[in-house]
Amino acid sequence: MRRRAQVWGGGLLTAALAAGLLGGGSALAVAGAEEVADGALPFVAKINFGDQSGCGGALVAPQWIITAKDCFAVGDAAVTAGAPAKPATVLVGRADVTTTTAGKRLAVTALVPHPDRNLVLAELSATVSGIAPVSFSADAPQEGETLRIAGYGRTSTEWVPTRMHAGDFAVGAVSAGRFELSAASAGATLCKGDAGAPAFRETASGPKLVGISVESGQKGCLGEPDTRTGEAAGARTDDLADWIRTSTAVTPNGLRETVTGEFTRDGIQDLAGIDAAGVLWLYPGTATPGVWGAKVKIATGWASVRELETGRINRDAYDDLTGINGTNNTQVYWPGTAAGGSFGSSVQIGAGWTTDLRDIAIGKVDGDAYDDLLVVKTSTQQLFLYRGTAAGGSFAGGVQYGLGWGNLKDLQVGKFNNDAYDDLVTVQSTTGKLFIYAGKPDGSQFEPGADTGSGTGWNTATSLTKAKIDRTGLDGLVEVDSAGKSWLHTRTAEAGWTNRVAAPGKVSAPQPGELSNIVTGKFNRDNYTDLLGIDAAGVAWMHPGTSANTFGSRVQIATGWGSLRELAVGRINRDSYDDLLAINGTTNAQVYFPGTAAGGSFGTSVQIGAGWTTDLRDVAVGKVDRDAYDDLLVVKSSTQQLILYRGTAAGGSFAAGVQYGTGWGGLKELQVAKFDTDDYDDLQTVESTTGKMRIYAGKADGSQFVPAVDTGSGSGWLTRSNLVPVTFGSETRAGLLAKDNAGNLLLYPNRVRFGVDWADPIVFGPRD
């Protein structure tokens, strides 16, 4: 009977001991497998799922791994799309799991199971930068060839090893979706913990993924008899490139000024655009036209840029970006770089480009080898042509190229019919029809405009961008509608147009790290801990908690909260719902927003105090004095006092403040929660002068806390902000959330005997 490659405790790929080797208990004495050196095979992932510790996987996209479905199975229940049934974490880029300086620890936020293979794609809580995803082999495994498998499963001598191992396996029979495996060196086998381990070819250009291990005989594994029979097997991935690309695709939503070009130097057309915050994003193209990978942040401060276009401006071999700086109405271009994925500093090439000049389009208009520029002048309804020059870096003076263009917009120059010449497409504003002006062999003015026969409604788009989004060889169009949603207009082989379809993939949702004044609590009435914070525009958002101890897509809670500070959560009004406490920075009033029975929202604010100037800071709420009511602690900067405001039986306010400590001027980021192993709320804070974290343990009698103890978590806490306690599910002890300087949200789970697993946080990052 076949066995699945087992999901189990932390370990590594195994093999039997080789006779006569020196080194006794050394892992290097394992025949058929070798320790993987630090930094090698960084795409190999180690997965922990709930209390089932141990699986392998492979990074296949910046925020996705592929592994076996069994790794996320609970009993006999099918693995379904969405959040995992239990919390799951992934280590990537770390051959030695005991180190914390290499690689990254992330949470699994969503699963995409394959419909008929023991495979699943797992989305991570942040993109993995600095580690290249493994490349796929398009060639099926061949019977008799040797593949390498790397993982963290149990060995013949170690129950829970701490280092990745890799070994050679011979391919046996190959069938649709699977292939047999057997040892290619003495004693090699797959053990518990090796489910999901990647099987790959070693090539001159690096490893090429062929499959994922899913079954194991386990002969020679520690704790298993040597009489075990049966070989291992893998699930094929060589024929799943389209499924993987489509499943991991990111929809380029919420953009304006979208453009396409070859920006990453892989020969595939990419898409770029600017969001409402002025961030320039790059969506790398994939081998599947119209499917883009995870977005990458290119630059900030582009809010004033308009009329973004792509062309070879400076005569090198790289696509450049050109646009209008709306602040000073200059025309500039950003040169593409040899490395790709970024652009050089802007170069001014023109002035006086007011909003009277609009709808820039770039392409080979006049038939020579250089990109030219077309633009409409609204006041005169003229179409102007600025010819590219041999010298590059600018355009020749504009010449009139047409009249009566006041009613036409969204100009795009590209290959829109089946001849070899660039054409011009544009939208007729009054009718909403798409017109084509076909290019001529001699590069003179286009053929007269003709209705493309693609219907009306094109005038509702906020942006149209030419793009190779099918395999016809013609340019289609990417449309962004008024809601920021992206649509694809593909072509037919006869140069016709199909009905638009939504751009594939999932929207790259804003992440919690983009918020400030973060707090956690039970806000939406399910069993999961939610996160709430305020964005730069003063909008309050809630990220609902999930079964995986992650945070889902955000939901707007309120607007106009930009002046609120010192958010905290507690049961203020004595019902059974978490309330929000805050200071109104405009009036210096203390207010609370009562939680509601329906959940997911809060009642109207209630003022419960006044005079809460910035001299009062670092508000923390918890059961400080051991009665049943939440109390409030705050530091008064001018006197360096710690002040306690006790909760009352009546609720809805606090008793008058009393001094609870002195010398607190150098302490900040106060948090009250159960951090240690007893039943009392503790106080945790950061020492401003040293950057060390200290814990003041609660006492049974509710009197002042035990004297401070260094948590042993180092001195780097001054680089962290917005520290928030977080307690998930049935846990009784709090971990910590914090933000780093890069905008990542870090989760420090409370997993150790005392305190938090400080050294190795789970990263919830901005998706860039």
Number of helices: 1
Largest sheet: 6 strands, antiparallel, barrel
The portion of residues forming beta strands comes to 35-45%
Oligomeric form: single chain
Overall shape? globular
Key structural traits:
six-stranded antiparallel β-barrel, 768 residues, six-stranded antiparallel barrel, disordered N terminus
Structure characterization notes:
The structure is a single chain. The chain is mainly beta and 768 residues long. Helix content is 1%, strand content 39%. The chain contains one helix and 58 strands. The strands form 14 sheets. Strands 10-11-12-16-15-14 form a six-stranded antiparallel beta barrel. The protein is globular and about 90 Å long. Mean pLDDT is 89; it is low at 1-32.
